[in-house]
Amino acid sequence: MQIGEIARRTGLSKDGIRHYEEMGLIASEPRAAGSRIYREYEPSVIDTIERVRQAQSLGFSLKEIGPILRAYAKNPPSREQTVRFLEDRLAVIRSKIADLRGIEKFIRNKIKQYS
Amino acid sequence: MQIGEIARRTGLSKDGIRHYEEMGLIASEPRAAGSRIYREYEPSVIDTIERVRQAQSLGFSLKEIGPILRAYAKNPPSREQTVRFLEDRLAVIRSKIADLRGIEKFIRNKIKQYS
DNA sequence: GTAGGGTGTGGGGAAACCCCACAGTCAAGG
DNA sequence: CCTTGACTGTGGGGTTTCCCCACACCCTAC
Asked: Residue A18 CA to chain centroid, in angstroms?
């Protein structure tokens, strides 16, 4: 598969895909085309990209996701590990929510003052 | 006041202060020192920096904050304008909260699945 | 006069891409 | 056979909010 199709199927731009590849999140087989080299992807990278996006939505950076993907591929974590992991993330998300709630409250108070 | 004192009083690093200045958020009087020029700040920039930080916490980028500061200095907005403005921000914050809640729910479901 | 603190500029880096230009590849159509 | 159009590659710059050097100069105190 060429980069364009991966892009269409994942919604991630070509630049984004190349970026993921540079970051070591996905891999391609170089295919010679005249004097040039084109990237040839296996369809499975689509799944990988989707997993990456999920991990991102959990608040991980791409740099963190690389090791995670690799660890996962080598030996999928136990249920317990997974649960612990998810609970950690839950805590992170909740603290972000708490921060935003603080801001929300701040704004509401301001509005009260002004109206 | 020199940059170091501003930094100490605001918690913003010297680099950060120079950055704010480049962005046009604060100003300094150049003061000659031998063959060099040092920045000399008025104490009021401390307040300005604090206002900038507040605006940031409301979700504004530095680029947006410049015009806001200037507009505010020229003619402070009416109560109505202020309220409308704050309500907009409130909406933004709330939608961010909603996004995070979605993620929270997602993680909670995952945890249920696994445990 | 030298040490120690402050300050200046310039440059590189981080995050996760976007966007543009220029150029080569390839298949279809005339 | 050649052109056209869609696709791809690389290289470079830009975004945002600073951080972190390195090197050099300023000034004060001892």
From this structure: 14
| Whether B62 contacts B56, CB under 8 Å | yes
> B81: nearest CA in chain A?
A114
Of these ranges, A94-103, B2-11, B55-64, the one predicted with the greatest mean pLDDT is B2-11
Strand partners, A32: A37
Q: How far apart are CA B83 and CA B76, in angstroms?
A: 13
Asked if pLDDT for residue B115 goes beyond 80, the answer is no
Contacts of B88 in chain A (CB under 8 A): none
Quick one: tokens of B54? 């507040």
Q: For helices B14-22 and B44-57, give the axis angle rounded to 10 degrees.
A: 80
DSSP string, B37-79: EEEE--THHHHHHHHHHHHHHTT--HHHHHHHHHHHHHSPPPH
Asked if residue A4 keeps its beta carbon closer than 7 A to nucleic acid strand D, the reply is yes
What pLDDT is attached to residue B63?
Answer: 93
Q: pLDDT for B62-109, tens place per residue?
A: 999 999 999 888 888 888 888 888 888 888 888 888 888 888 998 899
Q: What is the pTM of this model?
A: 0.79
Total length of chain A: 115
Backbone φ/ψ region at A2: left (φ over 0), alpha (ψ -120 to 50), beta: beta
Distance CA A7, CA A18 (A): 10
- CA-CA distance, B83 to B89, in Å (whole number)? 10
Interchain contact, A108 vs B94, CB within 8 Å? no
